[in-house]
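cache lookup: miss for this entity combination. No prior model stored, computing from scratch. Input as submitted by user K.M.:
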Amino acid sequence: MATAPTRKPRDDEELLSAEFMTRLDRLELLSRKIFVGRMKGERRSKRKGESVEFADYRNYVVGDDLRFLDWNIYARLEKLLLKLFMEEEDLNVTVLFDVSASMDWGDPHKGLYVKRVAAALAYIGLVNYDRVSLYGYSDTLAHEMRGVRGRRLVSQVIRFLQDIPLGGVSNFSAVGKRFAVHHTGRGVVIVISDFLDKGGYVDGMRYLLSRNLDLYAIQVLSPEEIDPTLAGDLKLRDVEDDDLAEVTISKPLLAKYKANLTAYCTELKNYCTQRGITYLFTNTRVPFDILVMSYLRQRGLLR
Amino acid sequence: MSFLAPLAFWTAAIVVPTLLILYFLKLRRREQLVPSTLLWKRAVQDLQVNAPFQRLRKNLLLLLQLLILLAGIVALARPIVETTVSEEESVILLIDRSASMNTLEGSQTRLELAKEQAIRHVKTLNLTSGGWFSFGSAEPRTRVMVITFADRARVVSPFTTNTSELAELIQTIEPTDAQTNMREALELAEAYMLPTRGGVEQTPVSPEAPSKLVLISDGGVADIEDLVLKAGTMELLKIGETRDNVGITALRTRRNYERPEILDIFLQVQNFGREAVRTDVSLYVDGGLSAVQTVGLAAGALEQPDEESTAAAVEPRLTGNTASLSFELTLDQAAVVEARLSRDDALPLDDRAYAVVPPPRKLRVLLVRSEYPFLESVLVGLPLEHVERMTPEAYEAAPAQEIEEDGQSKYDVVIFDGHDTGRLPAGNYLFIAALPQIDEIKAAEELGPHMLMWWDETHPVLRHVALDFVHIAKGTVLEMPPEAETLVEGPQGPVLTRYAKDARHYLILTFAVEQSTWWSKPSFPVFVYNALRYLGSGGATAEQGPTRPGEALRIPLPAGTQEAELTRPDGSKVKLTVEPGQQARYAGTHRVGVYRVEPGIEGRDRFAVNLEDAAESDIAPRGNLKIGSVPVPQVSGIRTATPEIWRWFVGAALLIVLLEWYIYNRRVMV
């Protein structure tokens, strides 16, 4: 059996360098939608609350906190009006990343790449006091770290990411369904995967869309997948499900493969665009810091 | 088409299944891990949809590969076309190597073509039965024997199945200029074909072992009609197409009897071609040109006789396809006369003829007799240098130096009239009513009055001699050895015989002239004249013309010769064995030309060997031969040589390889 064109990442290879983290400090996650948070945070919430920023008035009803009555209005108009302030709450940032066997591939390594992107996004979220949830999935949500907040948890998050083994069959439909059921919070959901799922991505996406989330899809492919370097008469074995495909590599076949790949990606992109999902395609050869610092900012996920 | 090495097809039994196995092995692909087969499957499906003849194409490749293999195997099997594969168990090739087989057909002589055909024929045999790769039970069945013949037959190879050895042996056959005589070849073949069976009378070859005789010849086999094929069948493989030839069919020289320095030369030139020709006939004496005549010849007899008139109109001098020429030269020494035709034709060897002319001389005759009535009167009238007379007693008593010189008689001819003697030095003798006292010849009994029954009018001794009405009162019945030549026959055996032995040449007449009426006839002096000339010119050599190729030369040598060497026309030298009687024999006269012996007797040291055979000069190939009035079927020659065909198959295999490569590369295989 031929060895896979894979450069196995070293275990101690750090997901985020200190230097890169300082660059990420300046960034924050954006959401195109304003969600109701759970805890006090640094984001405007739909909820009126206790910040210093005035928002509105409303009539007093029995039981309201007398501290928020606007006594100046009562003095002038003898009406009990309650001052409402803008509430700043936290943002739910969820990174849903593929850790199936197919991610254990490529040079540069897809799995490492995905973890780095997830780590970077988590770092940005933590720094900005967002609620960060990380889910590594294959056929189910196998690894999760929910509701992490605060900068001090960065090292914990990174260790969590590092310790996730790559393996299993990806089943995005099941994962999407489960995520939709279990994940109650709203917010930004970033799906990082190769989306090469035999079961298709449509069902999973539909579950996610049903929750009215701000969805991002980042498709990560390795150079070997984009431009295969295979030759000869081969029996291709799928690393995930041991599915076999017998091929004789020839120029037309490669051309057909590339055409199909392009078509597949375009189809995914169109699907996402039509449903308000921000789609981003990346090759692992693109340095992930450029992806984070440049592409994600262009797409409006980061600021 | 057939194959020289059909066993190569056995390799197909190995190679084709191997290919099929390889073809299945090809499907066992190298395994390769990929992140996802999703896109690959789609790509493959798409291509399959786009290529509806996918299965067929897979088969096409297999088919092409099988074709390549097949072509390769066929090439290995050494295919040949137009060959007839023999089923006979024994084949005898009779290869003609007579003079006419020297005819040039393009750049090759007929004999070379015949050898080529014979080799091809040999190679095509034994094919069905294993050929060159015989193993196990597939023993080669066809045994081949090769006999080559001209005037003599020679077994080139006895029955064998070794094809390559046969081919080599056939290559060694050398041409001769001799006549065609198939009888001996046929007898040889029959001797090999009919095996003797332990003293029981021979039975013809049993039907399960038919022998096939393949005669490879131009068909110029004159004696074939007289022969009978006792066993087997015969086929003719005709060689040659050319028929254009003009040849000298006779060259005779004769010294004028009265004036020996004058040499008469008679020449016969014959045209065997289809067109009328003109040619110069040049006469060379010892290499120097001395006379030229131009002769016009009509087309050969085959196209005659209807066109005779038109041919004559075009060429007034044409006198038919044969022309006789005569020259008269003054030549007072021994010489070699050579006649040449200036025209180039297919058979060069009959364009030249040679004659060895002895030096001019008059005869010295010794007459041994008590009285000299009739003979004396005849001898006086003859132009002789000297006639010595002796009584029988004086002859027997004479000292040796008076009669002989170095064992040779001092006289050209010695005549014994009524005297038997045993004193016979090497020389020429005419015995009249007398006998040489040698073992082979005996007088049986007296014979009363009789007539002469038969005489050989063509013999030089009896030329212009009419023996009708010659009555003989008393004669002798002779017992002669079988090799003696009977010239005149009486009621009880020979009356006049010629016998030669040990350099002695005898003419023996059994009756005394005075005991017959012959003396009164004009034919008697003519006979004496003829006999003296015949004996005096050294017997047959001068009168009978030159030796034919293949005939033995009888070479007189000077007395005391221990070693003699013969120079052949091509310059090669042969040592001669000196036989008793100071002479040697040489039978290797296969080529035309002048043979010269060293040391030799002045005037008799050169010998001309000429073709002079109209049958051989007529080179027109004949296909409709009959052997014992049974037609000989003709078979066609094997034209195609082996290598030319296998090259085509190898070329085809290469082309298919290219095609297969193209198909494999241009289209996708699953």
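stored under new cache key. Chain B touches chain A at residues 26-44, 46-47, 665, 667-670 (CB under 8 Å).
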